[in-house]
Specification:
alpha+beta; Pemi-like Protein 1, Chain: D; elongated
Length: 81
């Protein structure tokens, strides 16, 4: 578990603690979704964007495959370990 603390500025701004930014890979321009639960708990999550926003954040695990190769693997019930 990672804990952090922030102080709200006069303008209503706050800084996300460095440890939390690094753990969640929060970058400049990312959007956060804020939800106050019925019990008063505040839940903050990274807002879901379009898939292109993820480009470059996920490393490739190997070679690219074609749609035909994917279809063939599905048909043959291929399992990778």
């Amino acid at each position: 578990m990672i804990r952090g603390e922030s102080t709200v500025s006069e303008k209503g701004q706050l800084v996300i603690p460095r440890e939390i930014r690094h753990a969640l890979d929060v970058q400049r321009g990312d959007k956060l979704a804020w939800v106050v639960e019925d019990d008063g708990t505040l839940r903050v999550t990274i807002a879901k964007g379009d898939l292109m926003a993820l480009k470059g954040r996920i490393k490739s695990g190997g070679r690219s495959v074609s749609i035909e190769e994917m279809d063939d693997a599905i048909k043959s019930g291929a399992v990778s370990e």
